[in-house]
Structure formats: C-alpha cells, structure tokens
Amino acid sequence: MDSTRKGKWSIQRFGMLLLFAALAIFALFPLATLAVASFKPAQELIRFGLNLRLDRELLTFDNYVHIFSPETFYLKWYANSIIIALVFTVLCLLLSSMVGYALAVYRFKLRNLIFLLVLVIMAVPLEIIMLPLYQLSIDMKLINNMWGVILPFVVAPLPIFFFRQYASGLPKDFLDAARVDGCTEYGIFFRIMMPLMAPAFSSMAILQALFSWNNFLWPLIVLNNTAKLTIPIGLSTLLTPYGNNYQVLIAGSVFAIIPVLIVFVFFQRYFIEGMTAGGVKG
Amino acid sequence: MTGRRSNLLYSQKIAPYVFVVPFLLSFAIFFVYPVYSAITMSFQEIVPGEAKYVGTANYEELWNPSFLKALKNSTVYTALTIVLLIPIPLVLAVFLNSKAMVFKNFFRSTLFIPALTSVVVAGTIFRMAFGELDGSLMNTIVTALGFEKQRWLGDQWLALMTLLILACWRWMGINLLYFMAGLQNIPKELYESAEIDGAGTWKKFTRITVPLLKPITIYVFTISIYGGYAMFTESYMLWSGNRSPKDIGLTMVGYLYRSGWEQFNLGLGAAVGVVLLVITLLVTVIQLRFFGLFKKED
Fold it and tell me: Got the DSSP string for chain B?
C-alpha cells in the first residue's frame, strides 16, 4: 500500500514539475529572445522581427556601443530615471511613513477619516484625473520638470497603508518611557520607530523605486523634451513604424532590466513583500 | 511666547497633525482639485483661454462608434483577464504549495520575473514577436505547426488574444504570489481533520481552500477590474502610439488620451474620465455591498 502511494506521488510530482517547467519557459522565453536580439544587427530585426535565430557571424556588440555613444540620448534618459527614482523613493518613504505611523500610533480626530481617504485614493486610478492633473501641472510650471513627475504621487496611498499595518504591529509601551526621558514626538519617530520599521522601509523602497523606474503614463504626459525623458518614455518614442532606431530600443530595453534583475536576485524577499503589500489584511 | 508655541508644536495633541500635513496638502492639490475639475470640465467646451458650459453635450458626443468600441474592448479585456488570471494562478498556487512539489522557490521567483519588466519593454517584445513578418517569432511557430501565418495585430480576435497573452505573461506571477500568501494563512489543522473525516483532494480544495481564499480572491478580483479598465500602455506599445487598425486595440484610457492630447478636446476627455470614475465607484459599491470593507472574513 505504501509503495503504490509513493508511486502516485511521484507521477503527480513529475506532472507538476513538467507544468511549472513549461510555465517557467513561457516566463523567460520572451526576455531571452530580447536578449538574443540585442546582439544582432538592427537590419536583421527590421527584416525578420524578433526570433531566436542566431548566426555566429552576425553577432555584434554594436547596439550596446551605440546606446553609449553621444549620438543617442540613452545615457541621459538613464541618468534622469535614476535621479527621479532616487528622489521619488526617498521622499515617498519619508512622507508616507509619517502618515502611516501617525495613523497607527495616535488617537486623533481625523484618524479614521484619513484612513478612509487613503483607501479611496487607492481605488481611484490616475487615468481618471490625468487630464485636469495635466492642466494643473501646466499652471504650476511642472511640465518638462522632474518635480512634475514626482510631486503628484509622492504621498502614495499603498505605502501609507503598508506602514500603518506595520507600525500597528509594533510594541508601543516604550513610547511613554521615551517621553519621560525627554524624547520629543518627532524624536521618537525618527530615532526609535524608523529603525524598528526598517523591514517595511525595505519592501516599500523596492516597490516605489520599481514603480518609478517603470512608470509610463504620467511621465509620458509631463515630459516631452527629448533630453528630459525617462527610459520607458524615451524607448517608446523609438518604436516608430520606420524602425530607424531599433538598435537603441532593443539594447536599451535589455540594459534597463539589468539593474532591476540584480536587485531582485539579492532582495527577493522585500520585492515579494512589497509587490503583494496591497493584499495585506487590515 | 515662542517657547509656548514650540511646546504646543511638540505636544502629543499636535504631533499627529504635523505628521499628516503632507498627506492632506497632496490630497487637496493632487486629488480633490483634479477630481472636482474633471467633473466640471466634462460639462464644458474648452478652447485655449475660455471654457463654456455646454450641459451634457460631451456625454452625448460619447455615444459614437469609437468610444463604444473602446468601452467594449476594455470590458471584454477586463472580463477575460479575470477569467484567466484568477482560477489559473489559484490552482497553480495550490500546486506550488503542495508537499509533493520541488524547487518551489525557484519557480515562484522565475514566474515573477516578467512583473519586473516595464510595460514598454514587454510591449516592445510582444510587438516584434507578434509581428506580421514571415520570420517573426509567432509566425515561425504557427507555420512550423502547419498553420497559415497571421497578421496578429491586424485582426480583432488575434489582437485581443495578443493582449491577453501579454497580460498573462506579466501578471501570472504576481497573482500566484497573492494566492500563495493567502494559502499561508489557512491553518493546517483544517486539512488534517478533513483527512481524518475521509475528504479527498478535490473535496479539500473546494470545501476548504477556495472558501478560505475568498478575501484574497476578492482583492485580486477588484484590482483586476480597476487594472483592466485602466489598461492603456499595452495597447499604446503594441500599435506604436494608440493607432490600431479600425480601433481594434483602442481602450477607454486610449480614447481619453486621444480626445485630450491628440484632438485637444478636453471636455470630451474629461467626460471619459468621469465615465471611468463611475465604473470604479460602481465596482467599489458592489464590492462593499456584497463583501464589506472592514469585515473580518475569518
């Protein structure tokens, strides 16, 4: 009896392994074709589209050489993306953690109302208000300006929600002890609570930096000067029917994923926590 | 005087308000005002420097083939992503969570990798792989299997299929993670006592797993609706800038973008935004009505 059971398990195990292997190939295959394509001459791409064909003689680093040459804006876009991601993430984490912390720790009048507003903002997609937001950005002189990309979303509902959940779970008995020792309310937050919330900061830092790095719709609207673009917007301007810039498009896409993959390999846990943060139960 | 004021600023009463000031400011400027302004604009005809009240004219103008096509495309896309991206990741999560499975972490991470790419990169890949050229990846595959080559992005159903494959590629791993997180919260004793009562795998799945995953399923369902109706970048990338033949890839947000930024018809664009807002509110109300917001499900 035991042996038949074992046999059944191994068939099941084999079947599942096969299924997941197929899914893993489905997940990685498109990225593999992109990586292969980045080493092919652009004419090949225009003639044959994306495929896995690989001619030894045709392989070339030209595309990568090209994106780093001063003829293209690619490095400029890369720098813009890095600066925007850094400033956005730092500000977003600071401001959102303050709100989340206040909602978790203090019993004040607006507390429930603010929490409700946070949930409402989470439910209303940006797309609905982007037209008036664009008008507002014109009035505030935020067009073609990195602050125009950053400011409207810097106090983000999801991180507030996440920090609130996290801070609610922390012990609070030492808060009064700290007060007796002469620590101010702000001192408590910056010197005591922030270090305690470090894991939450890691998850949210990764989530927000990734969001900023890949963000498309809003930067597309606010930025229209070629030198000011971020990587996704810059790349999207290259996808013209004439295909004259495919080498930058392909090599640039690969080069944009690499830092994300590196961070993912080292900080997987925080990625996963951050990305599934919305599902955290209240 | 100043001493007293700074004491007040540092008091426990005022501190929480200081902490939430940035939120309140940003909420008023970048949320309340735009929402109010979207509603006002949707009743106006706007030419540079002048806004004229036109009643419901913008909403009446929405009753045109392009908008209805966009509404239909977005609705069909949303419905099908839900049909595909809830049951499949749920079952996969159960498989991946089972004792018999090996290399769990490897598969979990691998399936998650597409979610790390931007829609721009994903769209670039899919646009080229689903190109109409003989040598494109998909045409190589179908001709090798003995079928005719296809114009993937030129036909209504093939275009929808391409969008759905793209959605599955990017979202399967994330939804899988949501369901796996939900499975961690189901107490093992439930399965043990069910086994003692003689319940088989199927019965355990339908009687324990599915009902106890309800909260996370509702969450995934809700974000899928929001995400489905907000879909735009995928279509923007596949058809290089919102220009699909016969609008086969036009979405609600694509229509908003077209009226607001390509035709400078701000009033019409704002009206599309308000329609989207109504859809969002309906979804939220239905969700609240049937499932409750703060109700503890367990």
Answer: -HHHHHHHHTSTTTHHHHHHHHHHHHHIIIIIHHHHHHHHHTTEEEETTEEEE-TTHHHHHT-SHHHHHHHHHHHHHHHHHHHHHTHHHHHHHHHHHSTT--SHHHHHHHHHGGGGS-HHHHHHHHHHHT-SSTTSHHHHHHHHTTPPP--TTTSHHHHHHHHHHHHHHHHHHHHHHHHHHHHHTS-HHHHHHHHHTT--HHHHIIIIIHHHTHHHHHHHHHHHHHHHHT--HHHHHHTTTT--GGGTT--HHHHHHIIIIIS--HHHHHHHHHHHHHHHHHHHHHHHHHH-SS----
The pLDDT-based confidence of B69 (bands split at 50, 70, 90) is very high
Suggest the residue from B43, B121, B257 to mutate for an interface test with chain A (most A CBs closer than 10 A).
B121
pLDDT band at B107 (very low <50, low <70, confident <90, very high): very high
Beta carbons of A50 and B125 less than 8 Å apart: yes
Q: Say how far apart CA B224 and CA A165 lie, in whole Å.
A: 23
pLDDT at A144: 94
A108 and B33 within 8 Å at the Cβ level: the answer is no
Residues carrying CATH 1.10.3720.10, chain A: 74-279
Q: Which of A51, A249, A282 sits opposite B136 (nearest CB)?
A: A51
Confidence check: pLDDT of A224 > 70: yes
Cβ contact A131–B116 (<8 Å): no
A76 vs A10: which has the higher pLDDT: A76
Q: Chain A contact for B96, CB < 8 A?
A: yes
Using pLDDT thresholds of 50, 70 and 90, give the confidence band for residue A99. Answer: very high
Whether ipTM exceeds 0.90: no
Q: Do B154 and B180 touch, CB atoms closer than 8 A?
A: no
Residues 6+ apart with CB under 8 A from A186: B10, B15, B18
Fold of A74-279: MetI-like fold (1.10.3720)
Q: Given CB atoms, is B165 within the 8 Å cutoff of chain A? A: no
The pLDDT tens digits for A16-26 are 999 999 999 99
pLDDT at A5 over 90: no
Residues A172 and A188 sit within 8 Å (Cβ to Cβ):
no
Q: Mutate which of A55, A84, A127 to disrupt the B interface (most B C-beta within 10 Å)?
A: A127
Please report which confidence band the pLDDT of residue A282 belongs to, taking 50, 70 and 90 as the band edges.
Answer: very low
Q: Touching check for B263 and chain A: CB below 8 Å?
A: no
- Can you give the pLDDT at residue A170? 84
> Could B29 and A45 be called an inter-chain contact, meaning their C-beta atoms sit closer than 8 Å?
no
